[in-house]
Here is the input.
Amino acid sequence: MKPPLKRTCQWLSALGLAIGLGSLSATAQAQSSEADCPQAETMLQNAYPGARPDPKPDGLPSYLLGKKRLMLTGHGGNDAPVMFCKVWPAHDNLLLVAVPRMDADSPLNSDRVGDLDILVVDRKSLKVQQRLTVPEAMSDDAIRLVSMSFDTARYVVAPGVQAFGLRASYNGSSQPNPFNQTTLRLFVMGNGGSDTLRMVLDGFSASNMHGEWDTDCKGEFSTYKTVLAMTNDGHNGFFDIRVTKNAEDSKADYVPNGSDCKETILKREKTQHTLVYNGKEYVVPDALKDM
Here is the structure.
């Protein structure tokens, strides 16, 4: 057995190709979200008055609403999506809540089909202040959704308006063609009403890793990460967002006349991009679109 390339192994480990990573991610998310979602069932009943407890919860507590299964927090041994919450530091009287709304007739562990409801909840009354459904946000196939979390960095997108983010991480299922991506969506609250939460950024790839290799040594890999910063320039009432993209291409091959594996950096590049608000949403340039 030839010695593996150390960095390549680290790279692949970061991609989550080890069997069971998705289950570990889901379990960790379930454990943390249970503590962060106080009185989860009360919040769910307030948000969905017509929902009823699922008589066959399949290992995780859930409610049924028509042909949808609303997933609660819990300690499930399977790789299933769960409800998660986070206090919004910019408005600490509010709780950000994500409720997976899965097709009741579809499996929870593979080829999942479902939407995601984003709720902004009053922490005292546990009543929903605003909400939005992101269609098919919980659906996956060969590119598997492995984790989600709220991002409450200071995204001040307009004077007196702060957005919050939702990050989602995906892993590919092919070992010869590894793939990992984290996407970012941004949401802002409206001025009134219960349905005025808006998504102002979608389809943005915050980081990406992909490549092709022989599963032993030889291969080519590309990665990038991004850093976002608000600017003072703006369009249509919203500030522009400056994105710094740090990209790297590399290859791995055997050392001549030996069995050791060596990585060579082919290219490092830093580029600047600007996300501009068009009156409805921020426009994502092709170089930063999710795959």
Residues 1-35 have pLDDT under 50 and may be disordered.
